[in-house]
Amino acid sequence: MRSSVVLFLALWTFCPSWAASIRNLASVGPGGGGGVFAAVFHNSDPNVILLGQDIGGVVKSSDGGLHWRHVNARGFVRPDIGLDLFFVDELVAHPTRDTEFFACTQSGLFRSEDSGESWSLVIPSPASSEAELPVSWISFSPKNSSLALAGGGSWHEPDPEEDLALYRSQDGGRSFAFVDAEGIPELATITSIAFDPTDGSVFTSTTAGLFRSTNNGDSFNKVGFAFRHNQGQWIGIEGSGAQKTYWYVLYTLGEDGEPDTRSGGIYRSSNGFSWTEISGHPTINDPESNELIRPLGGRINPAAPSSLFLNLRIDGGEGGLYRHDGAWTNLTEDLADMTWSAGSGFFGIAPECLTFYRGDPRPNQVLPGGGGAHRVLGSGYRSRLDSGGW
Length: 390
Fold this sequence. Notes:
Number of helices: 2
Number of strands: 28
Largest sheet: 4 strands, mixed
Order of helices and strands: EHEEEEEEEEEEEEEEEEEEEEEEEEEEEH
Helix content: under 10%
Strand content: 35-45%
Strand order of the largest sheet: 2-28-1-27
């Protein structure tokens, strides 16, 4: 049974004082329906936010998080698909069409043209004989917004014995075709996809390792670096020129075939080929293995690509949100009144829905994940929160 986690909606202008301000929290919803594992802002309106839940589908706010409502009724609820469609692994906004969003679910990939108000199924296609296909990730090329790649499976609970599934769109996500990608083992789950913003190549994190393609996914070569961990969890690339930074998050699969939750690694690169493992902060290292407690994923600050935001979790659901920009900073250490344990109802902050607003000014907001929504109160926001609940 999947653990629920608490969602924090944090808004700030990035500065060193943010870690201290996280103590000032106000609940803004939605909560009351499982965990929240995906989040996305509208490209140009930070008041429009979509959240993806593990049992509740998609919820939407049009006022920056003050009020929330489910937006599943039009096209998302389907009598021919089971309840897995309500588990949303990822939400993505189309890079150039502001009202277009994509929801990766355990039943398929859904597309909305009206900011989440209605949805249509694009994977599997209407002509497919498959009723449902899990989709874990979708990524658009920053050099060509018509090109998108989507990966099958679940990055949240990847199965290394699952058949590889990669899909490609050449019309901006309106339709997808299966890609018989060479070079990746047939049994592998795609856990994330990232396009290089400079040369357009694509990096794919899988349960079989990290792979790179220079022909839009037709074939891949495994990145030949001796990573100490065997399961790819997440790959991210931000910046250009000397500022371009690659981050790769991995974990180790235990002898029993289950993820070893006390063994994870984080690597950084400037070119995608040679990597440096990031040493762990003493407070987030497992004292027995001296390794990072398993990271679930991360997000890069687009305004500062060398800055990684990361969630860590150990057995029992404990965890927290951390930032690395040369050294580790625990962004949740000031929450002394909260007990990060299963018994308290708090299961850590899930990075799988950490997201940045990329409009102007950018980035000024972030959504770290979980079962409800909270906002870090900062200058100018408290009065908005006083006006309503959800």
